[in-house]
Design brief:
Distance between the termini: 68 Å
Helix content: 25-40%
Radius of gyration: 33 Å
Largest sheet: 3 strands, antiparallel
Oligomer: single chain
Number of helices: 2
Amino acid sequence: MPGLDRYPDDLFAVIRELTARVEQLEAQLRQRAPLTTASQGWKMTDMAIPSVGPGEIQIGSNGGELFVATESGTKRLNQLNVPVATPPYPASFTSPATIGSAPTAQNYNDLRADVVNQLFTPLRDVINKGASIGLWPAP
């Protein structure tokens, strides 16, 4: 391109030069392999984990694992291995819904057993299974 001359004598030469540069850049873009493809789900090629500035994140693949790089560090998003077994669905209480007299020790024991079997144990199972797939830290 002409140096400091803003209005060169041959504007057509400048246009031809700019057209050639645009065509060259377009050709380079067509030859460049895409970073990702998505026609059958996203595919990412492994890459080095980059440094990321404030207010930015970068996602990518490194070592066959998905990662998110942030200014404060890198987090790998490990594959969720969801437990095969569904947590047990609580059954109905076996203790009586109502009692016709003053509660007895047996009434208390039956109710406590129902709470443990139908609420406490399934809730612990949900907590432990959630922790095992990384939804929250282990208790």
